[in-house]
Amino acid sequence: MEAVARGELTSERWIVHKLGNNEFSSEGSCQRLTNFGGNAGWHADPIGTSFFRLQTSGIDSSHVVDWARNNHEHFLIEPDLPIQVQKTPNDPSLWRLYGLNNYGQSGGTTDADLDAPEAWDITTGSRDVVIGVIDSGVDINHPDLAANIWVNPGETPNNGIDDDGNGFIDDVNGWDFYDNDNTPNDGNGHGTHVAGTIGAVGNNNSGIAGVNWEVSILPLRFLGDDGSGWTSDAVAAVNYATMLKRDFGINVA
């Protein structure tokens, strides 16, 4: 604790370890810890032979740090950090995605993955984030993707009018730069696979879960059904996504 600066720790729960055979008994240590606070907000109780739970409700952490410094020969102290079960979706084929969570299910190396469950404890995504998939298109009606397909807020479907004035008529769910129309459907499968990895709906008891359970997938097709296409069409797709962000404030990544 000598290296800890005042105010660096913020906690109202601490774990205290009584060192060795020091002069304080367990009962005496609890009483000493409780008495130091001088009020009901400072309370200690044993959680083992030489460990105590110290609760310091409403007390500045600097006072606890002061106590630790003054008693470092007899006690060690650390914040009592919260622990929560990891968030895991109920999608039945999730186990196949060893890249998200590898526990050796396919004979691979355990934990050689991107730690998706740990990330899901922090966030499972947001439909406010739009991710462009520049590929062979996306199956926008796929049951594990349909809810996460981007919808252009400025377009009225199938009215033959460029409602938002962006130069693309009825681009409700993106654009097909391979066939130059407003139906960026996937006849190859690769783009749908990529979209699923990015954002298959999670925790819907169906299929798999993407890295983002919730997201807005923007299909931008530039590859044909045979998987081939032109660089210029890919550039046009990038320019389209850039235009949406620059001119219309769409949060495209």
Brief summary:
By secondary structure, this protein is an alpha/beta fold.
Major sheet details: 4 strands, antiparallel
Helix share bin? 10-25%
Oligomer kind: single chain
How far the N terminus sits from the C terminus, by CA atoms, comes to 43 Å
Structural class: alpha/beta
Average pLDDT metric: 83
Question: What does it look like?
Answer:
With 253 residues, the protein is α/β, with parallel strands linked by helices. It has two domains: 67 residues, Alpha-Beta Plaits, CATH 3.30.70; 155 residues, Peptidase S8/S53 domain (Rossmann fold, 3-Layer(aba) Sandwich), CATH 3.40.50.200. It is built from five helices and seven strands, in the order E-H-E-E-H-E-H-E-E-H-E-H. A four-stranded antiparallel β-sheet has the order 2-3-1-4, covered by helices on one side. Helix 4 links the parallel strand 6 and strand 7. The N terminus is likely disordered.
Which descriptors apply to this entry?
253 residues; alpha/beta; Alpha-Beta Plaits; Rossmann fold; 2 domains; four-stranded antiparallel β-sheet; three-stranded parallel β-sheet; 5 helices; 7 strands; 17% strand; elongated; disordered N terminus
What is the topological layout?
Blueprint: E1 13-18, H1 26-37, E2 42-46, E3 51-56, H2 61-70, E4 75-79, H3 116-120, E5 125-135, E6 175-176, H4 190-199, E7 214-221, H5 231-248
Parallel strand pairs: 5-7, 6-7
Antiparallel strand pairs: 1-3, 1-4, 2-3
